[in-house]
Write a structure and sequence with these properties.
The protein is α+β, with helices and mostly antiparallel strands. It has 6 helices and 12 strands. The protein has a 6-stranded mixed sheet. The chain has a two-stranded antiparallel ribbon with strand order 6-7.
């Protein structure tokens, strides 16, 4: 029921969502700042994103998607030497998912020239499922579409030519691993992939928000406006990167 001119926050909620998107993207794409670069001069050190960590400390499959059992046997042989984690999840783009579906369908004795991927009861209302969620061959492999790799405004819009370095998928071991936690001063179990935040008894930087200015009840400066500030200090921990696989074009 108020009248006249009012102060309000223009799209503060959308701005917060974009900031959270930037944070998630940085956990995936971030790299350390190059020596003698402008970033170093500006005191930006960068951080190790998931892709950077796996490229430098893990395993990289390049030259197209593995689309045969023989190629997956090569991956399995490599995993045998690195840690032999029983269950693994492959986050992949659409083409890689289709390649795995076709590979598994070809193992069906009725697959050649047909559409029988499994048992069904000839229900006229049933749609034939041509996709798979995973398979076992020495290890359990599960697959799931990663929207980030398909989105044309993100990784899905990058060049797809051979040797372009386009990321088609990421294999992540499931479960936990035991590491020495320097903060706790003892061994602790941690997920292979997790995000850590800087915090103390008085300060938590997982997501810090504060308002500055002189409008809307704030009285922190002589700025005749209200500004909402967002701050987060976090990093992604890729534990046991030698058990990860990055699939590149």
């Amino acid at each position: 029921g108020a009248t006249g001119y009012l102060w309000y926050l223009k799209s503060e909620h959308e701005t917060r969502l974009r900031f959270e998107d930037y944070l998630e993207t940085s956990m995936i794409e971030a790299v350390p700042a190059e020596a003698a670069s402008g970033a170093i001069a500006a005191d930006f050190k960068g951080t190790d994103g998931i892709f950077y960590s796996v490229e430098n400390r893990g395993n990289v499959w390049s030259g197209g998607n593995p689309s045969s059992l023989a190629e997956f046997d090569t991956i399995i042989s490599r995993l045998d030497k690195q840690g032999a984690i029983e269950e693994n999840v492959i986050f992949l783009d659409r083409d890689f998912g289709f390649d795995i579906d076709d590979m598994l369908a070809a193992q069906n004795s009725y697959g050649v020239g047909g559409t029988s991927y499994g048992l069904f009861d000839n229900d006229e209302n049933m749609a034939l499922n041509l996709g798979f969620t995973g398979f076992r061959r020495g290890y359990d492999f599960y697959k799931t579409d990663w929207k980030y790799l398909n989105d044309p405004t993100m990784r899905g819009g990058l060049p797809t030519a051979a040797g372009s370095g386009k990321v088609n998928g990421l294999l992540v071991p499931a479960g936990t691993t035991t590491v020495y936690d320097q903060v706790l001063g003892k061994n602790a179990k941690r997920p292979f992939l997790h995000v850590r935040y800087r915090a103390s008894q008085t300060e938590d930087r997982k997501m810090k928000t504060w308002i500055t200015g002189s409008a809307g009840g704030a009285a922190t400066s002589d700025l005749d406006a209200m500004e909402v500030n967002f701050l987060s200090e976090r990093c992604v921990c890729t534990m046991g990167a030698n058990n990860f696989f990055l699939f590149e074009q």
